[in-house]
Amino acid sequence: MKAALVIMAAGMGSRYGGSKQVDGIGPDGEILMEYSIYDAIRAGFTKVVFIIKPEMRELVETLCGRRVAGMTAADGSPVEVCYAYQDFSSVPAFYSIPTERTKPFGTGTPCSVRGAASASRLSSSTPTITMVWTPSA
User: Fold this and answer.
1) Average pLDDT of the segment spanning 70-74
2) What pairing do the DSSP bridges indicate for beta strands 120-121 and 127-129?
């Protein structure tokens, strides 16, 4: 089975009150997403995709991305790690983003995310997530 764990970590943590993606919660300072990754790899997942803001890449790589890239999946293959950037570059022309908006599209926002596999490219190795506006019913 080829399965990918997609971790949506581009949020600002405004309801949480900080950077929930990087706050250590485990006995040895493990971050929350490490638990999900560990369980997914044990269950047979072979790929981890981090959906992040571009400015978070170095931090996510340092905290867990490099370590995950060195792991072995249940089938014996190396775990593949990918990073996808969430941004506003592909919002349809008929929709204008409010100038005061600083948060990425997320909880409660009328949009959906198209799969990272079909995302457009920012560079040869970093896809950007395509945000698709869908009007509220």
Assistant:
1) 93
2) antiparallel
* Residue spans of beta strands (DSSP E) within the chain: 4-8, 47-52, 80-86, 111-113, 120-121, 127-129, 131-133
The SS3 call for residue 113 is strand
Q: Which two tokens stand for residue 4?
A: 């990918």
SS3 content of the chain, % helix, strand, coil (to 5): 20, 25, 55
Q: Are 131 and 86 in contact (CB under 8 A)?
A: yes
- Report the predicted TM-score, pTM, of the whole model to 2 decimal places: 0.67
Q: What is the DSSP letter of 24?
A: B
Percent over 90 (pLDDT), the chain: 25
Contact in structure between 103 and 61 (CB atoms under 8 Å) = no
CA 94 to chain centre: 26
Contact 130, 90 (CB under 8 A): yes
